Amino acid sequence: MKRDVLSRLIGAVILGGLFPMTVPAQAADNPPVTDVLPSGVPLPFPSTAPNNTPQGWDTTLLGDPDGVRSRLRAHGVRINLQDVEELWGVASGGISRGATYNGATIVTLNLDTAPLFGWHGGLFNISAIQLRGRSATADRVGAINTLSGYDAGGRNTRLFEMWYGQGFWNNRLDIRLGAIDPDTEFLVSDNASLFLNSDFGWPGVPSANLYGGGPSWPMSVPGIRARIIPTYPVSVLVGVMDDNPTGGPFFRERSMLDMNPTGTQFSLSTGVLALAEVDVSVDAAGLSDVPTGALPGVWKLGGFYDSGAFPDRRYDTQGHLLAASDSNGQPLMHHGNWMIYGIVDQTFWNPDGDDPKAASVFARIMGTGGKQNSLSFGVQAGFTFHGIVPWRSNDVLGLAWGMSTAGSRAWHFNRDSLQSGADDVLPLRTEHHIELTWQAPVCNGVVVQPDFQYIHHVGGGILNAATGRRVGDAAVFGLNMTTSF
């Protein structure tokens, strides 16, 4: 039976028959407005239909006043404004208890070159971000992964992305060139994007191991990316770009936002980041004889290679232990770094009754080398449930877990430090976080999302300088409100 199902799946992918569809000609890869949101993304009901048409104004708070937006769109102009407000309260554990506020406002402008200039298949995209508030993670928790993708720990107004996209062959090839944020497309699990913890967006493993946390929200880097659709259930995503959004050294004393406060400082001095990903769309309902609604899923396999130089986590340039008293304090440098990952987003329950209900599962696993990486392995997994709250058919509930574990030499460095008698180091542990979230639309364009997170082994077992003891497991309550105007 398993062999028969597998053969049907492989055959369907090869023949391109899982989703017999065509892609209409339009501006290159017209991005959803939610692409600029790093976490807490409104999660649509699972569907096998391609998401390649501009969103209607009925999904926004202001709608289409006097038809202004419709007239602008007819001329190729689309402007989107989104605002995010968050409150976080540490109820127990962490560094300290208390409440913290952070927020962001994002403006995006899309120009379709066909109605504007008669140039078909072209799209110009530019976006800017205004950040405010404080970091609850840095000030009160101390976790490896921030409580939210918006927890940037700074206040400024900055450029986010600025690129030109061109589609070819009815958009079966789509190329972007300019200032790009790869984490809007690479490494993305749609179901994981529902959750607020940053590990479910741009994960902790690449964030800890790349220069400046890697090119991720709210940073962008100069580069080029291409999406190729050889057959419609399969797409291939490749990108080549700068690897350092701050332009600074690997070990930095200032925050990322302070090192590149406007988002317009681009540096090509450290290395090149090359990414590749293969996505396969499936409808699992076609593999079963049981009547059911569509069971869409996307399975992904990808990885990246960074040509830069990265510090060894245990040895210095003389071959001595970095934790030893005779170390020169300069880590041995290794050329190149890599990571591979796999992602499964799959709807497994959709009764297709009068009330829209569905349940989906996601899993993302990633691994990398242990010499030059503080984190070498990470996993995120969870469930999302549509329409199971009585009288709230559009609400989404989610439960997820994630973890990040240290590389082999980072573990040994910790042990070396303990043996050398360091009084500010504790035995290293693996941090885990669990998140329970409820996304509830309250009116057109406004989504409220209560959230609870529990972080076990905060920071891998760091010391609380105020108490002289290990930072306790943190229980954190949050509230996110996202408004699309």
UniProtKB/TrEMBL annotation:
Endpoints of the signal sequence: 1-27
InterPro entries, alphabetized: Carb-sel_porin_OprB, OprB_Porin, OprB_sf
GO molecular function: porin activity
Amino-acid biosynthesis keyword on record: no
Keywords: Signal
Entry's Gene Ontology cellular component terms: membrane
Record field: transmembrane: none
GO biological process: carbohydrate transport
Superkingdom field: Bacteria
Cited Gene3D superfamilies: Carbohydrate-selective porin OprB (2.40.160.180)
Record bears the keyword Lipoprotein: no
Family from the record: Belongs to the OprB family.
Protein name: Porin
Species this chain originates from: Acetobacter aceti NBRC 14818
